[in-house]
Design brief:
Radius of gyration: 22 Å
Largest sheet: 5 strands, mixed
Order of helices and strands: HHEEEEEHEEEEEHH
Shape: globular
Strand order of the largest sheet: 8-1-2-10-9
Number of helices: 5
Length: 179
C-alpha cells in the first residue's frame, strides 16, 4: 500500500532550517488604544472589551454620593452600566471640564468576570497588535502611586501604558459603590 500524498517525505524534514519555534512570530494580542489626559494613551486588551459606545453628558444619569470618578449610569443594551471617568480614576484631569461638557465622549464597555463597566475617555484611537511579553513593569519612579495598581506596565515602543482590567474591576472603591 502506498502512503497518502499528504505525508511528508523524510528527506524534506532533515533540512538545515531553524526549528519551527525559532521562525514563528512571538504571540501577538490585540489592544484598544485610548487617550489618557492631554498627551498620554493607554492600551486595554481587546479580550476585555465588549463594545465602544459614544455617549453625551446628557445620557449619563448622575448618582448622588458617589466618588468623583464615578460619572453615573447609562442604559446599555437594556442594562444599567456604571460609567467611570478613566482619566480621573487614573489621576489625570477630569473629562467633564466645562469646556468639553457638550463634546461626545467614548465609553469602553469592559467586561471582567461577567461584570460590565464603562470606562469613559475622550477618544478611542485604534486597535493595535502587540506582544504582551514586551510589556515592561510599571514602577513608582515612572507612574503616580494612585495609578500604579491599575497598570500591567507600559510598552516603550508603543509609547503607552497597558491597563490592568482585572485590577480596575477589583478596585475597592468600585466594589464598595457598585452594589
Amino acid at each position: 500500500m502506498e502512503p497518502p500524498d499528504f505525508l511528508i517525505n523524510d528527506s524534506l524534514i532533515k533540512t538545515s532550517s531553524p526549528p519551527v519555534s525559532a521562525v514563528l512570530p512571538s504571540p501577538q494580542q490585540k489592544f484598544l488604544r485610548c487617550c489618557l489626559g492631554d498627551r498620554d494613551s493607554g492600551l486595554l486588551a481587546l479580550i476585555h472589551v465588549a463594545e465602544v459606545i459614544q455617549i453625551t453628558v446628557a445620557e449619563i444619569l448622575p448618582v448622588p454620593a458617589m466618588p468623583e470618578c464615578i460619572l453615573g449610569i447609562c442604559n446599555w443594551r437594556g442594562k444599567m452600566l456604571w460609567l467611570v471617568d478613566l482619566n480621573l480614576f487614573l489621576d489625570y484631569s477630569p473629562l467633564l471640564a466645562p469646556e468639553i461638557a457638550t463634546t461626545p465622549l467614548m465609553a469602553i464597555v469592559m467586561q471582567v468576570e461577567g461584570q460590565s463597566m464603562g470606562l469613559v475617555v475622550s477618544q478611542v484611537q485604534d486597535i493595535e497588535w502587540h506582544d504582551p511579553s514586551q510589556i515592561r513593569s510599571a514602577t513608582a519612579s515612572l507612574f503616580a502611586a494612585k495609578t500604579l495598581p491599575f497598570l500591567q506596565g507600559y510598552l516603550p515602543h508603543a509609547d503607552a501604558v497597558v491597563l490592568d482590567p482585572e485590577a480596575i474591576a477589583r478596585c475597592p472603591l468600585w466594589q464598595l459603590h457598585r452594589g
